[in-house]
Specification:
The chain has 447 residues and is α+β, with helices and mostly antiparallel strands. 54% of the residues lie in helices and 18% in strands. The chain has 2 domains: 217 residues, no CATH class; 188 residues, no CATH class. The protein is built from 17 helices and 12 strands. Helix 1 runs antiparallel to helix 2.
Amino acid sequence: MWCILALQWCDFRRKALDTPSSERPISDREMMRLEYMLARRTEGADRHSRSEVMMRIATITVCVGMMAMIITLSVFNGFRKQIYSDFRGFGSDLTLFDVTGLNDGEAMSYISYSEELLHSIKALERVERAAPYLTIGAMAKQADQLLGLQVKAIDKQYDTTFWHKKIVRGRLPALAAESRRGEVTISQSTANSLKVDLGEKLELMLIDKDGSPRRAPLKVVGIYHTGLEEMDRLFALADMRDLRRLAALDEDVISGYDLWLQQGADSEQVAQEVEEILAEGEEEDWYNLVPATLQMRNPVAFDWLKAHTAIAEVVLLIMMVVLLFNMAAAMLIMVFDRIGMIGTLKALGMRSRAIGNMFLIRAMLLFFRGATWGNAIALVVIWAQHHFSLIKLDPEGYILSELPVSFDFGWWIALNAGALAVSVVVMVLPSMIVASIKPEESLKYKL
């Protein structure tokens, strides 16, 4: 086989020259065509040689490595986006509330609604929306079932885009209705625990501001599901007018303000701007108000996410190292298995650089074949998980009930380009061994 390749090299060199005595050098383009041709021919010959098994192992390693790295990044980005999106939906990017109740052992203190403060907050450049909310802890009773709930009451100013996406049956309370209707939207987890369905009455029991127990039935008009089971089990949504009546609160009483920021805005910087507004205000209710970012309100979840980020980085590093070691080993086997051919081609006038490029092209073809299969399998897995949620999670340990995935062309292209670039750098080192092989010493190897 290699004798035939040597003859092809001689024929190529003869055709590239105008006459046998011409001094015109072979162009780079012609040399690249020759290197590619020799690489493809040697690749075909290796399918029936002793190095075939190693080449297959290297291809499979590249396939598995690329597949694992793509899926790992997809899952990590999915966790980050899903957790942030869900927590942002339950609250907002920034929440402004009175912290004095925390010192008294209560979940939240009540403040008076201020149109002036809300207008000042909305005027900030990076604040997209802002609205008041009212939160009250209550016990939900249905037949002989009891469950603690955190009821969040909102009005028509509140942005309900997130909630409309999470509704699985029914609807949200009629916030824009002229009069209150006594409606509530609960989670699928709450509905299952209390064995309550749409249209049925759910009795809420709570303590009003005077410490007296109060109870009132609310009609279940909607059921939602976010997958964030830790929050779903405890969270219900109601009309602010209904909750004020149930708790015997004044018409202007709220728990705080939710602020949604523009995409890419730094919540810490916006929090400082809000603090400056509060410092300039003269209202007594403003003195104890504190802006809290999403990370400040949910430190456990975001610390958990940081820990998984470190794990993802370790997995990517390990898979990349394994991939590179296998590619380097495959490259060395290619070179040492063809020492006789290398010596023959050198004796016929082919330069070491061209021979090294030939092996480099072979290794790149191997990488492309494995990377193509790895990308294809990974994309199919991501697509299937995104559309059919095949893999479920235990929300007790993973916060979410389904494995989230997120695909973005940016990191996908960067990962493939980075893996190729690093692989080429690693493969260049074994190809340099070609320069040390001398034609006279290679004669003892079988062609």
